[in-house]
Each structure stands twice: as C-alpha cells, then as structure tokens.
Amino acid sequence: MSTTEELIGLHRQYVMSTYAPGLALVRGRGARVWDADGREYLDFLSGIAVVGLGHCHPAVVRAIRRQAGRLM
Q1: Which end of the chain is more exposed for a tag (fewer CB within 10 A), N or C?
Q2: In whole angstroms, what is the distance from residue 43 CA to residue 59 CA?
Q3: Of 9, 7, 11, which Cα lies nearest the Cα of 24?
Q4: Closest CA to 33 of 49, 16, 14, 18
C-alpha cells in the first residue's frame, strides 16, 4: 500500500489541478475515514460523494453488488 505522500504525488502527476490534494483516503466506514498512513478522521463532508449515508453503508454496498451482477 502507498503512503499519503506517494498518493498525493500520483495525484499531482496524473490529475488535472482543479483543486489541491489534501488527504489520501484509502478506507471509510460510516462517518470515519482513514488515510494511507493509518490516521483516522471524522468525515464532515457528507455532501461530497457519500451523500448522508456514510461510507460503505451495508445496504448501499449490497445494492451496488446486486446491480453490478446484473449489468457487468
């Protein structure tokens, strides 16, 4: 697994600079997220990407798996 510094370096190399990279998040559960260095954070930005359900909500994960099995 890469470190936060390595992931931010990859971001700078391959992603258009529309915003500055801050954290290299690699895992989420509910309202908590972890970076590549193992630091834990509370995610207060629920409106971006995860709506208000949190990360890896079991019902959402089940629905995505079921739908992917039908379409992929």
Answers
A1: C
A2: 19
A3: 7
A4: 49
Token pair, residue 18, equals 């529309």
Helix, coil or strand: residue 67: helix
pTM of the model: 0.61
Strand ranges across the sheet with 25-29:
25-29, 32-35, 40-42
pLDDT under 50 in the chain at which residues? Answer: none
Cα 36 to Cα 39, 41, 53, distances in angstroms:
8, 12, 23
List, in sequence order, the alpha helices (H) in 1-71. 4-14, 58-71
